[in-house]
Design brief:
By secondary structure, the chain is α/β, with parallel strands linked by helices. The protein has two domains: 207 residues, Rossmann fold (3-Layer(aba) Sandwich); 39 residues, no CATH class. It is 47% helix and 15% strand. The chain has eight helices and seven strands. A seven-stranded parallel β-sheet has the order 3-2-1-4-5-6-7, sandwiched between helices. The longest helix is centred in the middle third of the chain and has 29 residues. The radius of gyration is 18 Å and the shape is globular. The protein starts with a strand and ends in a 7-residue tail after the last strand. Bound molecules: 1,4-dihydronicotinamide adenine dinucleotide and butane-2,3-dione. 1,4-dihydronicotinamide adenine dinucleotide binds next to helix 1 and helix 6. The site of butane-2,3-dione has 7 residues, from helix 6. It comes from Kurthia populi. Catalyzes the irreversible reduction of 2,3-butanediol to (S)-acetoin in the presence of NADH. Belongs to the short-chain dehydrogenases/reductases (SDR) family. Pfam families: adh_short. Keywords: NAD, Oxidoreductase.
Length: 258
């Protein structure tokens, strides 16, 4: 029987790219997103292409929603093999203006979401008595800290730390936990970051220029596309990655060197 993967935040952007790659790899995929309208549209498009997928709306910051998506995956497909904690949000703010609401919002989704998704998936793998793979969205911002992106960078450093700690605790169940760390990918997230950086630049930047400046240092000379990220997740989700755990692997075309 083909394997089953859940991908959170997969109605669009990198999550959709990851879901499409896993479908190509032969997975049955559960798409999960807070945007129910977009989720239904994406699920319909993928079904029309012949994919064996379902959509489950939910908010990753709610622990119950994460256990619910695992329950629905098992109800529909009988098992769970891979859980991708992809959903995440951005925040662009000068450090002195960061407030409690921003910290709570970004950490609730980017950090709590990863913890709850990991718990829900791990409990299912333990119940099944099978190996399992948990794959988290980190970022180059989980290795490097950026001006105006302090809250976001801190949240991604926390994702890297939870990847390390959970991989150590879950190894005895044959569950691996790894993270992918994208660079500068052209998705709605970067459209928003660019707009906000322009807004905070006092006229120094025009639309598109923050994205261009960030992309300028990429050694391979182009910005990232969802397929680049899908390729790394495809490997991490495969049996070929069975002996890799606790790693936060950078895929950025050569921008941040660790
Ligand atoms: N775009 C980039 O350059 C980079 C992105 N990343 C990370 O990759 C992941 C995906 O990023 P993008 O696709 O660019 O973002 P995006 O903003 O383009 O898409 C995110 C998707 O997640 C969904 N979502 C947002 N909040 C949610 C919640 N609470 N529960 C469930 N779904 C939710 C959105 O509806 C959307 O469909 C994020 O964790 C992000 O931090 C990391 C490094 C670079
Ligand atoms: C969006 C992101 O993850 C950056 C700027 O590294």
């Amino acid at each position: 029987m083909s394997k089953v993967a859940v991908v959170t935040g997969s109605a669009s952007g990198l999550g959709r790219g990851i879901a499409e790659q896993l479908i190509q790899d032969g997975f049955r995929v559960v798409l999960h997103d807070i945007n129910e309208v977009l989720l239904n549209q994406t699920v319909e498009e993928l079904k029309q292409q012949g994919a064996d997928v379902i959509g489950v709306p939910g908010d990753v910051s709610k622990r119950a929603d994460q256990f619910y998506v695992v329950e629905k995956a098992v109800e529909a497909f009988g098992q769970l093999d891979v859980f991708v904690n992809n959903a995440g949000i951005d925040a662009v703010t000068p450090f002195l203006e960061i407030n409690e609401a921003e910290l709570n919002r970004v950490f609730a989704i980017n950090v709590n979401g990863v913890v709850f998704g990991t718990q829900a998936a791990a409990q299912q793998f333990i119940k099944q008595q099978t190996k399992g793979k948990i794959i988290n969205a980190c970022s180059i911002a989980g290795h490097e800290s950026y001006e105006m992106l302090a809250t976001y960078s801190a949240s991604k450093h926390a994702v890297r730390s939870f990847t390390h700690a959970s991989s150590k605790e879950l190894a005895k169940y044959n569950i691996t936990v790894n993270a992918y760390c994208p660079g500068v990918a052209k998705t709605k997230m970067w459209d928003r970051i660019d707009e906000e950086m322009v807004r905070h630049s006092d006229g120094a930047l025009q639309i598109g220029e923050a994205f261009e400046q960030f992309s300028a240092g990429i050694s391979l000379g182009r910005y990232q596309i969802p397929e680049d990220v899908g390729n790394l997740v495809s490997f991490l989700a495969s049996d070929k990655a069975d002996y890799i755990t606790g790693q936060a692997i950078i895929t950025d075309g050569g921008l941040v060197y660790r």
